[in-house]
Design a protein that fits this description.
Length: about 475
């Protein structure tokens, strides 16, 4: 479990942090700067919650010592004054974020979870050598000996230290974020900040504020000045995922940063400078979007200083056995199944023959599900999804009226059974699996209601089209005469 260090002289804050955050992290509390810094040097922490006003030392000075100890630890400041100059100064120096007191449970938990995720993204080394075969958690989805992956590794080696914008292209689930992480870790900026922003996950106005920050009163709800990612990431690397889902107004401001390294906060008139390396990623056809007037041609040329193409898994099926070994060892440990021996030859043959439309992300999900479901020491074809074994016809993207929609899940009746099964299996991931089930059910129903119209569905769901597209790919929802889901 991730570890969190909380430094505050208010006992009530320490108690709240322990009660609220213990389900997501191991909590260590300290009531003074000296104790907190001593604990930090003794242990290994994924994030720090730091009070600005400590009895023995100013919070900004403490932050500087934390940064000197480990520049990659995300530090979240806690402040009575949301517009505290100290907090804003710390953000400009690279602190992760700040939160106003009194603390509210949900925003605190969300912010800590984001910080821990950021720590994992920026701190875990990526194995770009083809010599490692699973077992090393650092390797994650970046395993392969195929010629296509060796070309990716070579490209990373050639451009990682070149301070130019890089565009990573590939289908959803191929591991674009891992390429970005490797480029950062092998660059001259590896000791500086690495931040990731999913452009499809935020509405246009929030994305602009997230990237460039905003001044107090810039829009409804802007109660204090906010430091954006370009300012916070000064000297470091900013990863812009799903760059194709960026609104035209935001595109223009990003173009200016790429050209001049200058920008203004939303609602502000003061010009700010920054030194940020941008790595972008997309699975969308940007050239076609330029022709359709949906994307700026000059921004595409600026982003496309160097392009790294990630191959889909179907084009490197020789890497599937290595990925299976890694994911199997990972799931065996995570789900505490020491008696699990592996997969039968028949199961491996089926897995290596499948074309994996969801790429490496789908393979990982299948292996994890097999490990969860199996009660035998060897995973056999009976445990694999029907789409892989071929026991039912796979849904394709070619419209056909001969394929009937699968039986729709009934959330009210099947969710309790799902939760009970996970309880019986002593799963440690019940919340995530239940929420995934519910999200898939809701998205499927809305798409069926709109006859597959993604714009209408996104509006009804209250999310962006980019986020809806991401969920469609993640859940293998196929749009045709009926909206179907691969089982």
């Amino acid at each position: 479990m991730p570890s969190l260090l909380v430094i505050d002289d208010d006992r009530a804050i320490l108690a709240l942090a322990e009660k609220t955050l213990s389900p997501i992290a191991d909590i260590t509390t300290c009531a003074s700067a000296a104790d907190g810094l001593a604990e930090l040097r003794r242990g290994s922490y994924d994030a720090v919650l730091l009070d600005i006003q400590l009895p023995d030392q100013n919070g900004l000075a403490v932050y500087c010592e934390i940064r000197e100890h480990d520049r990659r630890i995300p530090v979240i400041f806690m402040t009575v004054e949301a517009a505290s100059n100290t907090a804003i100064e710390a953000m400009q120096l690279g602190a992760f974020d700040y939160i106003a007191k009194p603390l509210h449970v949900e925003p605190l938990r969300d912010l800590v979870e984001k910080a821990i995720e950021q720590r994992q993204i920026s701190s875990v080394p990526v194995a770009i050598s083809a010599d490692d075969e699973g077992g090393d958690q650092a390797a994650e989805l970046f395993i392969g000996r195929s010629p296509a992956m060796l070309d990716v590794f070579k490209a990373i080696g050639k451009v990682a230290k070149q301070d130019v914008p890089i565009l990573i292209r590939g289908e959803s689930g191929t591991g674009k974020e891992l390429v970005a992480r490797a480029l950062f870790q092998y660059s001259h900026r590896s000791e500086e900040t690495f931040l990731a922003v999913n452009c499809a996950a935020l509405p246009d106005n929030l994305l602009e504020s997230e990237l460039f920050g905003h001044e107090k009163g810039a829009f409804t709800g802007a109660e204090s000045r906010r430091i954006g990612k370009f300012e916070q990431c000064n000297g470091g690397t900013l990863f812009l995922d799903e760059i194709g889902d960026m609104a035209p107004a935001v595109q223009a401001k990003v173009l200016r940063v790429l050209q001049e390294q200058r920008f203004e906060r939303v609602g502000g008139n003061k010009e700010l400078t920054t030194d940020v390396r941008i790595i972008a990623a997309t699975n969308r056809p940007l050239e076609q979007m330029v022709q359709d007037g949906e994307y700026r041609e000059d921004l595409l040329y600026r982003l496309n200083g160097v392009t790294i193409e990630l191959p889909p898994l179907r084009d490197r099926l020789s890497d599937v056995p290595s990925l299976i070994r890694f994911f199997l060892a990972q799931a065996k440990k995570e789900f505490n199944k020491p008696d699990l021996e592996g997969l039968s030859p028949e199961a491996v043959e089926l897995l290596t023959a499948y074309d994996w439309p969801g790429n490496v992300r789908q393979l990982r999900a299948v292996i994890r599900r097999c490990v969860l479901d199996t009660v035998m020491p060897v995973i056999t074809p009976d445990t694999l999804p029907a789409a892989i074994t071929g026991t039912v016809s796979r849904v394709t993207k070619t419209p056909s009226h001969d394929v009937a929609p699968p039986e729709e899940p009934t959330a009210g009746t099947q969710l309790p059974q799902l939760v009970q099964r996970l309880l019986d299996e002593r799963s440690t991931n019940i919340y995530a699996e239940a929420m995934e089930y519910m999200e898939r059910f809701v998205i499927l129903k809305v798409l069926q209601t709109t006859d597959g119209n993604q714009s209408q569905a996104a509006e009804m769901l209250g999310i962006t089209r980019g986020k809806l597209r991401d969920r469609i790919n993640s859940y293998n929802i196929v749009l045709k005469s009926d909206v179907l889901v691969e089982e």
